[in-house]
Amino acid sequence: MNNSIPVVSIDGPSGAGKGVITQRLASLKGYHILDSGAIYRVIGLAARKDGLDFKNQSGLVELAQGLDISFRGTGDSENPLSVWLRDQDVTREVRTNEAGVDASKLASISELRLAIRSLQRSFKRSPGLVADGRDMGTVVFDEAQVKFFLTASPEARAERRYKQLKDKGIDVSLPDLFLSIQNRDLSDMEREIAPLEPARDAVIIDSTAMTIDEVFYFVLSVVEEKLG
Ligand code: C5P
């Protein structure tokens, strides 16, 4: 395990602002990004395209092991990475709420989580990594030097997600989104494998009453203090 490469993990429920903080921090530090949720989303999409039943665990594991996924730079600072499956740009498809629900179902399959572990770890490259997810600091990068658990009230998170999806031109109803986010959080927290919880050594941030700038500068101050 190479511990000289810095890893900052940012875990927490959906809509807490992890994605934006990850992007801003990575761009300021010149670090790589791991959007681990996108991997589960892409597996769901690939399974649907292949007509693979979500109950077919061995088929899903096989699919995940041979997954032809890549993240490519877009040059856009707000959305720096596009997501590709088998040479097709699926960035928009994977961001829908339905893709999130599919991802959450697949994420409770322990064999599948193990099957993508080395793919996730391969993102740890010099000069450093910011890893966004649910189990980055607890499981995948247990050795991370700086760990955050970013959360906010369910209402605030549903509203932020609603705005994000609307801005991307994705149509969704706020009450439906609120329910779906609540169900997804519950299943992420209650699953047996890698449940959503703060790492013992995580800095916990409740961003309900904070602006994204306030969260970012707080995160940055902790990172600078710990990594120099
Ligand atoms: O972060 P995002 O909303 O893209 O994640 C989609 C789903 O993937 C989450 O609700 C969660 O069930 C799952 N996930 C996970 N572990 C991660 C990242 C995402 O279980 N590290």
What structural keywords apply?
about 230 residues; alpha/beta; Rossmann fold; five-stranded parallel beta sheet; three-stranded antiparallel beta sheet; 11 helices; 8 strands; binds cytidine-5'-monophosphate
Write up what this structure looks like.
The mean pLDDT is 93. The chain contains 11 helices and 8 strands. The chain starts with 6 loop residues before the first strand and ends with a helix. The strands form 2 sheets. A 5-stranded parallel β-sheet has the order 2-6-1-7-8. It has a single domain, classed as 3-Layer(aba) Sandwich (Rossmann fold). Helices cover 50% and strands 16% of the residues. The radius of gyration is 17 Å and the shape is globular. With 228 residues, it is an alpha/beta fold. Helix 1 crosses helix 11 and helix 2 crosses helix 5. Cytidine-5'-monophosphate binds next to helix 2, helix 5 and helix 10.
Give a nutshell description of this structure.
This protein is α/β, with parallel strands linked by helices and 228 residues long. It has helices spanning 18-29, 36-50, 57-65, 91-94, 97-106, 110-115, 117-121, 136-140, 154-167, 174-190, 212-227, and strands at 7-11, 32-35, 69-73, 81-85, 88-89, 129-133, 146-151, 203-206.
